[in-house]
Amino acid sequence: MPTHFQMRVYDVVSTVPKGRVISYGSIANALKTSSRAVGTAMGKNRGFGGTKGKDSDKVRLKRKILEREGVEFQDDKIKDRFFIEADSLAISKVDRKLWRKRARSPKSDNCNKRAKLTEGDVSPQVIKKEILDILGRRGKGKSC
Fold it and tell me: Which sequence ranges are marked TM in the entry (predicted)?
């Protein structure tokens, strides 16, 4: 089960438009954390599998997906023009304030606040499932 922090990372990633990529550093800046923490969260993402090494089948598959979306590579690196900053994504200032507020709260309070912040009958578990479904679809070549 993903942690609250991992869900925040996946939330940012799910807003990246088709044909664009984002660096761990940019995600980290948006979440006021380190790029290493973002990399750790992404490594636990079941949608991609956390496979390491550029010669793995999953990495080759991810590259093919990105190429189909129009992303171009040069010397096994994504060209700079395809990177976007988290500030240009559809992440509202309200969401960022809530993330920071939750991050400063004791862990026991986070669950209570999350439940209070959820509108209607949508539980945090439903939101988490939807985000993981989006990430899984994106990993299979479909856009969010």
Answer: none
